[in-house]
Amino acid sequence: MEKSNSQELSVESIRGGEILAKDINLNNGTLFMSEGAVLKSNSGPRLKSLGIRNVYIVPPDEKELIEQTTESIISGQCKDIVKTTIDKFSYGIDSDLEEIAKIAEQIMLEVLSQPEVLYNVSRIRDKSERFYLHCINVAALSVLVGIKSKMQEDRLKGLAIGALLHDIGLIFIPFNLSKIEIGHVDDATDKELKRHVIYGYSVVERETWIPVNAKEVIIGHHERVDGTGYPFRLTADRISLETKIVSICDVFDSIVYGIFYKKRKVNEAMDYIVSQAGLAFDVKAVRSFVDSVAAYPIGTTVSTNNGDTGIVIRQNNGVPTRPVLKIRTISENSKFKPGDELDLTKDLTTMILDSIG
Fold this sequence. Notes:
alpha+beta; Molybdopterin biosynthesis moea protein, domain 2; Hypothetical protein af1432; five-stranded antiparallel β-sheet
């Protein structure tokens, strides 16, 4: 929300609760705090130690309106994104899986109702709408997989918070993320991008409202079970289940929406995840992921090896690449007619070649 004016305030006068009207940049140009961030009671001494003498804040009479408007917009968007993500990618084939989807949605909305969570999600949104959507998608998918992994509710909430904030360190990256081209990242940019896990952890390290397992996710979601990840090159036995789950969902969503990866279709993204089981990703976590996420979401139009096309209308639990189709168009020698239902777990001679919409 654009501010009509701002009020200059010396750092010695910060009492906590003030809203920044302008970004705070360090002498080297690095973004330290974003416009819209809420100052804390201990922000003054910290800013002063960095050589910052004055900040610009939202005038008190505008503060309440901005807070209410921002919170209302983001809260409404979060609910829509959570529901869309879970509906699109979860199986929902039987009562058990439908219940899992409902529980996942409830946990996500409960976590997002916390003011601290919503505030930090809003900071991600202010930096990049794309990463804001990505973080909510990853959190919704992670909770689905966590439930499938039989994770207890308190751990699930920590998982959700960690997944929502896993990329919060990107708000401190001092360049435009949307302009980074796949395959054209130089060494200096790559090193700076990798620092986002450290930046993120430094933001949440002393926050008592953030569970330990959420903090582990924030710093560790780029670790890989074979020790090739960063920042610490941890191996499987030193990576939490929550972190293993978020690392899978992070890469999956990044591939589907083309974030730092070449954009691919859902089934291709899933094939990649499965191919990395036991290498980059934990085998059990991948299995829970495959059992939770549809390779061909309901409503997807696919082509078959028979030359027919069909729309995915149901999923087959445990067999993500062989859903139930309703035949849409047929080839000259097809054994089906438009409108027929085709269960690919029963007709093993028919295979999906590609998704086309």
